[in-house]
Amino acid sequence: ILLLAANAIKMPTLLSFHRHRSRTSSALILALATTVPSISLATTSNAAISSTAPVSRLPLLAFTNHLQQHGTKKQQFSSSFSLAFQHKEQKNQEFRPFTTNTNKMAPSAEISENVAFTAKEIDLDDPYMYLEEVESEESLSFARSANEACLKALGDPKTSGSTTYDRVLSVLESNDRIAHVRKMGKNENGEDSMYNFWKDGSNPKGLWRRVTMASYKTSDPEWETVLDLDDLASKEDISWVWKGSRPLPRARDPMSEDGTRVTRALLSLSRGGADAIHLREFDLLTNEFVPSKDNGFVLPEAKTRASYKSRDVLLVGSDFGPGTLTDSGYPRTVREWVRGTDIKDAKVVFEGEATDVSVSAYIDDQRHHDGPIYEVRSRSLTFYTSKYWVRTIQYEHLLAPDDSLREGVEQPNKFEEVDVQIDADIDFVGKWMLISLRSDWEPTPGGKQYKKGSLIYVDAETMLNNGSEGAEYHILFEPTERSAYETYSVTKNYFILSIIENVKSKHLFFKFDKEDDGKLVFVGGDKEAQIRACYAGSVDPYESDDFWFTTSGYTQPSTLFLADAAKVENNDDGEGEEYIVEKLKSLPPQYDAAGLTVKQCVATSKDGTEVPYFLVTKEDTVLDGNTPTLLYGYGGFEISLGPKYIATSGIAWLERGGAYVEANIRGGGEFGPSWHQVCLILRIVSGTLQITCMSQLALSVF
Predict the structure, then answer these.
(1) Do 647 and 171 meet the contact criterion of CB atoms below 8 Å apart?
(2) Which residues have C-beta within 8 Å of that of residue 534, sequence separation ≥ 6?
(3) Where does 209-322 have alpha helices with state H?
(4) Counting beta carbons within 10 angstroms of the beta carbon of residue 151, is it exposed (0 to 12), middle (13 to 18) or buried (19 or more)?
(5) Contacts of 202 (CB under 8 A, 6+ apart)
(6) Helix, strand, or coil here: 220?
(7) C-beta separation of 59 from 36 below 8 A
(8) Max CA distance (Å), the chain
(9) Residues linked to residue 246 through DSSP beta bridges, in sequence order
(10) Could you read off the pLDDT of 57-90 as tens digits, one per residue?
(11) CA distances from 453 to 480, 487, 597 (A)
């Protein structure tokens, strides 16, 4: 589709390949059928920063993920790339599309006429598998030689005499970033306490810090350091890398001063950035770690997942020895660890199969939305499929078995397997179970069918007790061919649904109608979808309807607003975005976007599918084939591409008169599960490697 877009806008085109590295995949770059007169190829990976080699009449290159199969796991295909080649039009060059025979999974006859090899000649053994060991001398040597090739072909930007390199570097190292915060209760003075993790040149490992909401709204907030990771690394002589925090929910903490303060948190610290983490409990009242000798929760390095069940009980999955990890290397069991006891004595409360990706268990406390406390257990069968078991419990069931508050309390309900398709996701809001569908679903045979990509909700208690056939479903969102559900956020009284319509963002607002059994009733939202990236996230669903609202665009820097969901319902002026209360933060412009325009265009693939792309150019650009164009595409993991501020491309490309194109190729999530699932036909069958050409990915392979 990128080559098609280049042809449509009649411009010389620069594309760049990106090699996506993962534990279960390896990349193989193969030459395909279509001959391009002049190509400058760039590949990037975790191991090789850049490698270029100008080639004369080199066939267009394909990016391929070879996903290994483990047991009965379904194989998934994704493509992650940005393509780059310098294409000069020649009148007699015929662009021959790549087609796929999904039965034989081999190059079609149409391709075989031009291809320089046949399927039998492809070596299915990946010669670049050694690059998976990113710190090995062999990989580092490859990276050095690749960098040398890049500099030889393109020149060293540090010595070129251009200011571009220095300007791009200054943007990447700039402190001009919005410090996004997360509310974690109140401080000792009753003021809202906002937390942020921040890294800059003076604090390369980072500061965990907090500030009051009132101070955060000012231009110069007064931050209080909670944990200095650089200082900790120096004292302990370990190169700590921050991997996140998981606070103790204040509604389940008897020390929280009537549910107002967050007193403890579990910190995940990685040694040198490894996948495995050290788990350490932190006291937010004293700003100190709670050592194991004081009954703090502390675990050594492992791929640990842990969350608070209550103040003195954790749900933990980790490496506890043989049989406790899945074949994928993640926790296979969940233990219930009581404070003050040895983790070795912790009871195993849930376990999956070795062939699962992982298992998990957590508490979803919905009492603040007039719902129950849900205890959830799940097995991730594959990347996109899971099974869930759920029960409702009382607060006392969260406590340690010997806690005095449990005396006389009846045993909790038994777990019920959730009767949904394994590729569906579930969540809870109040009394409702939300179900996000990745395939069509007919809960009752012969009854109504709900479309893939839909977001529906159902009474959770009814669903758990009676199964899918005995429940009444309500539709929050049903997709069209050009719209998709993206995410949601919940305030105290409102449900904010984020969707994309033709790759443009839009927000819809629903209210919990307490006069109609708490059903979600539509009350308003954005009048039109817009070409911009937007994020809406609740400030504090316990207490208010405020939410953070962040926007950005190709030429507009990120801006953070404070918004109020209640204003949607209370304002009927029809102006749109009436929910915005005040502008809090905004990035300064980092490149000169004066005179630039952003357009959405469409290319039609061979199978008739319209594939959109965004075009950023100077207003007076004539699309006559003489404007250098940078094309970018990503198709994988059901992740959507969309407008975002492109400061580095703006400096290095747009300011110099180039055009920027971003193509929403299939494989992503721009139009819901269907847009991604069409890529699943590209998988390994009977040992035959399925290959795809980036520039024609959406044109005819699918």
Answers:
(1) yes
(2) 498, 505, 507, 549, 550, 551
(3) 213-216, 229-236
(4) middle
(5) none
(6) coil
(7) yes
(8) 86
(9) 266
(10) 222 222 222 222 223 322 332 332 222 222 222 3
(11) 9, 12, 32
